[in-house]
Amino acid sequence: AVGETERKSRKKTKDEIGVLADSVRDMVETVGDKAKTLEAIAEGDLSVSVKLRSEKDVMNHAFVDTIQRLDGMISQINTLTSQIAAESGEIALSAHSLATGVANQSSATEELSATVTEISSQTKQNVSLAEAAATLASDVLPEVPEDFDHLDTLI
């Protein structure tokens, strides 16, 4: 009466009370079997065997359906877990490739910056040299006609 399924009645009689007691014993035994099946399922054992007492055994049919559905869900979870693990690996590889690409771009950008700095420095130096050459040319230019005249006398 309080959920115990292990307790058994010892009295056996042949009258209506005895027949009723036998029926109650069978019912308690059936409930006890179902409780053991539920305990096994609750512990994760989906390999429990459920025997159908008849085609109309609604409760045991429900147990069989529940076990099959749980087993199917666990299979799906395992499949999805494997897929997630594989995709996580691919994501990690992609992230690594991306990080490598970023590092390479950073290095190339630093090299380009150094090259631009060097070109700028060379350009400034060329401007200074060109200015110096222009100054020398302007200093020498007034003397050039005299040198041409002097060259004519030599020839």
Treating each run of at least 4 consecutive H or I residues as one helix, how many helices? Answer: 3
What is the multimeric organization of the chains shown?
single chain
Unreliable residue runs:
none
Radius of gyration: 50 Å
**Secondary-structure element series:** HHH
Describe this structure in words.
By secondary structure, this protein is mainly alpha-helical. The chain is 78% helix and 0% strand. It contains three helices and no strands. It has helices at residues 16-42, 58-140, 144-154.
Which helices and strands appear, and what pairs or packs with what?
Layout: H1 16-42, H2 58-140, H3 144-154
Précis, in short:
The chain has about 160 residues and is mainly α. It has three helices and no strands. It has helices at about 15-40, 60-140, 145-155.
Keywords:
single chain; 155 residues; mainly alpha; 78% helix; 0% strand; rod-shaped
